[in-house]
Amino acid sequence: MKYLVRDKLFAIGDDYWIEDEDGRHAFLVDGKALRLRGTLELKAPDGRVVITLREKLLSLRDAMTVERDERPLATVRRKRLSLLRNHYRVTMADGTELDVSGRILDREFAVEYDGELLAHISRRWLRVRDTYAVDVVREDADAALLIAVAVCVIRMAERED
After folding, report:
1. Burial of 156 (0-12, 13-18, 19+ CB in 10 A)
2. Cα separation values, 97 from 89, 110, 113, 117, Å
3. Which of 17, 31, 136, 156 has CA 20 to 30 A from 25's CA?
4. What is the pLDDT along the chain (161 residues), one digit of tens a residue?
C-alpha cells in the first residue's frame, strides 16, 4: 500500500491529510501541534491520535521519539553518515531495530528489519510536486509507524544538512 505524504510535513500551520493510493484519507497530520507543543501528531480519520513524534532536544546525539498511546514506541537516531547515503537506526521499545538507509534528502530510501524490506520511500512514482510516497511492502507492517519513521529521518537529515 502506498501513502502520499506532503514534503513540507514539519511546516507550521494547517492540518492536512496523508492519502492512500486510492485517494482515501488515511492519516490527518496535525500541523498546529508542532507550533503549540513542539510535537507532530498523526491522527486516524476519526480524530484519534495514532502516533506522536517528539524531538529530543537535549540528547547528545540527534534523536526523535515515536510514541503510541503516550508510551514510547521507538527512538530514531542517525547511525552513520557517508557521502552518498544516510543511515539511521530505529530502536523499538522491545529492543528490536530497524535500519533506514538511502538518499534521504532525495526521498529515495528504504526501511528494513533484519535485511527484509518493510517500506520504500520515493518520489519517482509521483508527478505531484512536494509529495513523496511511502510504499509499505509487507501487509502486516505498521503503516503509521513506517510513515512516522520516514518523517523523522527526513526531518533529522534536513537539520544536519
Report:
1. buried
2. 7, 14, 7, 13
3. 156
4. 899 987 765 555 567 788 998 999 999 887 665 555 567 889 999 999 999 988 766 554 578 899 999 999 999 998 866 555 689 999 999 999 999 999 998 899 999 999 999 999 998 866 666 789 999 999 899 999 999 999 888 888 887 76
